[in-house]
Amino acid sequence: MNIIMDYNIKDYIDSITEVKPMVLDNILKPYKQCKKYVLSNDVSEYLRYIDEEPFYIPPSFSDVKVDIKLSTREPKFVLFSAPGATGKSSLAKHIAYNYGALYWNLAKVKIGTNSFAGSILNAVGAINYSGFIGDLNTGDVLLVIDAFDEAEIVSGRKMLSSFITDISNSLASHQLPSVFLLARTETAQYIASFCAESGIPVAHYEIGFFTEHAAKDFVVKSVAGKNTPSKPDVECVDSYYDVIKRNITEDECSSFLGYAPVLEAIAAHIRATPNRQKMISDLSTQK
After folding, report:
1. How many helices and strands in the chain, by DSSP H and E?
2. CB count, 10 Å around CB of 199?
3. What is the pLDDT of residues 51-70, one digit of tens each?
4. pTM higher than 0.85 for the full model?
5. Are strands 179-184 and 143-146 parallel, antiparallel or unpaired?
6. How far apart are alpha carbons 144 and 79 in whole angstroms?
7. What is the chain's Cα-based Rg?
8. How far apart are the C-alpha atoms of 229 and 211, rounded to whole Å?
9. Using an 8 Å Cβ cutoff, are 61 and 103 in contact?
10. Alpha-carbon distance 166 to 213, whole Å?
């Protein structure tokens, strides 16, 4: 069975014919603020609305084009994939907060057969269940499901497939992709290949690294926190970034200086040095 699954993933990867840059705002353009349902406390550990705006700076995105017959049909899912520590959960919460989507953290629960229907039933109650599913099909409700890679480790691919099939069956009359799936690249490739084999259309996007502008913005806002960034904050970040950039190759710039943990480390170092002018002066002597 694993051999077949691995072959399907390879087949999916080989079917990619074009990858082009995308902007997050364009990906999310079809969506609007959606309805919110009253949720039961029974599901609060893993199903909730995001009420506090998360810190989020959009990185780069790529639209993964796949040469399959399903490409002419409206996708049921939007699949975001990325390597580890590239802000998948931040993206998930960003979408949930800005559109009023329901956020589902699979790292907090084990999934199995009927997990989707059972969890939604527990969340909104029997009286509201059909209304919720109807709203999900029209896009009046959005669902953001995070941490598929962790679910794969805990529950296995068989249960992952069953879970995705359950959701797909509930989207029989979908008008737009109203369910967002987030996973590390390898798990996402499995999900995409499973959907392709099962006749489930998916829009697949790969989360990339930060551009230089976005990387600096990430560090500046991390340093400032809830305060308005000062001119010395901005100048310090520019100097710090440029010093590193001069000491690595051009090929390393996007992967190293566009990688969130590196940017977080830079921000932590700057925050730990309150005298911005002294840091700027010290950085100016660096080659």
Report:
1. 12, 8
2. 11
3. 999 999 999 999 885 544 44
4. yes
5. parallel
6. 10
7. 21
8. 20
9. no
10. 41
How far CA 6 is from CA of 10, 15, 106, 190, 208, in Å, comes to 6, 14, 23, 8, 24
Dihedral angle sign, alpha carbons of residues 155, 157, 160, 165: negative
The first and second tokens of residue 70, run together, are 């399903």
Sign of the torsion formed by the C-alpha atoms of 91, 92, 97 and 98: positive
Mean pLDDT for back-to-back runs of 10 residues, the chain (287 residues): 50 61 92 96 95 93 65 82 84 97 92 88 96 97 95 91 95 95 93 91 92 94 92 92 90 87 93 88 80
Report residue 106 as tokens.
Answer: 């699979």
Rounded to whole angstroms, the Cα distance separating 104 from 257 reads 31
Instruction: Identify the pLDDT of residue 236.
Output: 93
Q: Per the structure block, which two tokens stand in for 200?
A: 């489930």
Tokens of 210: 């930060």
CA triplet 105, 184, 19: central angle to 5 degrees? Answer: 125
How far are the Cα atoms of 56, 85, 205, 210 from residue 98, in angstroms, in the given order?
A: 11, 22, 19, 21
What are the DSSP E strand ranges found in 168-231? 179-184, 202-207
Cβ burial, residue 147 (10 Å; 0-12/13-18/19+): buried
